[in-house]
Design goal:
six-stranded mixed β-sheet; single chain; three-stranded parallel β-sheet; alpha/beta; 12 strands; Purple Acid Phosphatase, chain A, domain 2; binds fe (ii) ion; 8 helices
């Protein structure tokens, strides 16, 4: 399941939205909840707390999250990761929340008060997942590290990549600077060559899915809706993904505004159709 773009700031409407979302998440009972950024409206600690409590109600062992642009304090120094040294990054990154608290450090985002890192590298029984912080961009070195992780994963695992800023335009959305990552073409090409099955992105507050084909393989690129943004012209809700096998994937949009669920991608039907044909 993908939840995104809460842009949470305390208000009765936002809390009602979280209650509605909680009911839907409980109904769908996902194995894994991927949060693709913009948990908060302005990157303030007090805006994170209710969102993290909401996520914790499902059990944090099911939750993986990356930050979005909104989650960095305006005018802050940016991500704490050195731009030019992976080694330093790995050596300096605390691996225990306790360590982080013991050595106070000025973070550009309260996100790191609640999550161990701004990137996610995870292998489960069914999938290999890489989530990369895209603020302000995904550096080549970060992408290289993510791809290496995916390529080193079992070929049986579905390969899933997640980032906050979008990688493709969506219909009915006039793009602004920063909506799509400047190196999106290179990122998509790299992911396709790395055998990625599913790309999750967000930021545009619009639901759309593209399927890209290369040498007989398909990579689905899905843009998530906002969970709470009910402004005109936007669909509000969340996405669920059923991944039976790498080539059997279904992505579904679930509205929080009363619309029926809508299938965005379904390669399971296509496979059955091929067999029948
Ligand atoms: Fe955003």
């Amino acid at each position: 399941m993908q939840l995104s773009d809460f842009h949470y700031a305390p208000s009765p409407e936002a809390d009602l939205g979280l209650d509605l979302a909680r009911q839907l998440v409980d109904e769908l009972a996902p194995d894994l909840i991927i949060v693709s950024g913009d948990l908060s409206r302005d990157g303030l600690l007090e805006q994170f707390v209710p969102v993290v409590e909401f996520l914790a109600s499902f059990g944090m062992e099911r939750v993986r999250a990356i930050p979005g642009n909104r989650d960095y304090l305006a005018g802050g120094p940016g991500p704490t990761r050195p731009a030019d040294s992976d080694l330093n990054y790995f050596l300096e990154a605390p691996d225990m929340p306790g360590l982080e608290r013991a050595v106070p450090e000025k973070h550009a985002t309260p996100f790191l008060e609640f999550f161990d890192d701004v990137d996610v590298f995870e292998r489960t029984k069914g999938l290999a997942l890489v989530g990369l912080d895209s603020e302000p961009v995904i550096a080549d070195e970060a992408l290289r590290r993510g791809v290496a992780f995916l390529e080193a994963s079992s070929p049986k695992l579905a390969r899933v990549f997640c980032t906050h800023r979008s990688l493709l335009p969506v219909p009915r959305k006039k793009l602004k600077e920063g909506d799509i990552l400047p190196n999106a073409g290179d990122i998509l090409d790299t992911l396709m060559l790395a055998g990625v099955d599913l790309v999750l992105c967000a930021h545009l507050h619009r639901v759309h899915a593209w399927e890209l084909c290369h040498e007989g393989r398909t990579m689905a690129v899905v843009n998530a809706p906002s969970l709470l943004d009910r402004s005109p012209g936007k669909e509000v809700g969340l996405l669920s993904f059923d991944i039976e096998r790498r080539d059997q994937l279904r992505a579904t949009f679930h509205s929080l505004a009363g619309q029926p669920p809508r299938t965005l991608v379904d390669t399971t039907e296509r496979r059955k159709g091929r067999k029948r044909g």
